Amino acid sequence: xxxxxxxxxxxxxxxxxxxxxxxxxxxxxxxxxxxxxxxxxxxxxxxxxxxxxxxxxxxxxxxxxxxxxxxxxxxxxxxxxxxxxxxxxxxxxxxxxxxxxxxxxxxxxxxxxxxxxxxxxxxxxxxxxxxxxxxxxxxxxxxxxxxxxxxxxxxxxxxxxxxxxxxxxxxxxxxxxxxxxxxxxxxxxxxxxxxxxxxxxxxxxxxxxxxxxxxxxxxxxxxxxxxxxxxxxxxxxxxxxxxxxxxxxxxxxxxxxxxxxxxxxxxxxxxxxxxxxxxxxxxxxxxxxxxxxxxxxxxxxxxxxxxxxxxxxxxxxxxxxxxxxxxxxxxxxxxxxxxxxxxxxx
Length: 346
Ligand SMILES: Cc1ncc(C[n+]2csc(CCOP(=O)(O)OP(=O)(O)O)c2C)c(N)n1
Prior knowledge:
By secondary structure, this protein is an alpha/beta fold. It contains 13 helices and eight strands. Bound molecules: thiamine diphosphate.
């Protein structure tokens, strides 16, 4: 705020008021909440990487760092009873849906107190009470599940939407096309959110996907409405999603979002942040549009928050993540007989 700015009775500067008139969906509580959710995912995942290096977490660990704005912006537009489902890069979606960080960390540790009693691990988080219907490890394998969930809610005449998150690498797969076809044919209330981070493991989209220049074109070819958005800008994601959710809930059929993003880390913990398939310079270039940085700049420049707010949020989130690790570490491993529970054998 500059010296000539005047404060209005609500404590906002005139420049903040002007911005709010242009972007009526912004208020202090909202924007700080969005920032907190992204910060929680970021700090939780940084801590998971540390725990992986200490061998507290086994198996695969795929981090979502850099892509947080998509999960947070999208889920902010949902009702608590709507469904969400995602692939193996799922910690961010699950935390954004409101799952308890202690139970999520315990699941990564393979502990009995984990979201799935320690039997799912990082790639298979499920929190049914929060309508988070899972992380799935088979690329594109959950897209038909999302279509099925949407079919079930329509069949039961419920006014719910299902959001399905997946990477652009799923688009060339057969099941993605079958699912898009049925969703379009039956006008199902499903929103496909393609998180286009430009790489599938160590292969760039240009080298693997014929439609890489217009991934959303796959959906349009089935008559599904589609839009490409900036997946690094959480406010843009949330505002587009609010309109899309309203439209889909209103019975207009499915929608496809291609959210352009970038993963700052390697594909998984076994891949260095910038392997042989991309340069350090490219990663650094994208880091300039870090979603946390972008939102922080907006909040400060509109006087919706101060440096003190960010210090406070860091402290709060830091405590939550520390407590999550302590909970996971002190929890017991599942007993051996648990192996035979939750197993379907007919
Ligand atoms: C059907 C299938 N084929 C191959 C793999 C191995 N695989 C794991 S992740 C991955 C890349 C997927 O990239 P994308 O869908 O863009 O998601 P991202 O990892 O970039 O989030 C591949 C090929 C798999 N898990 N499932």
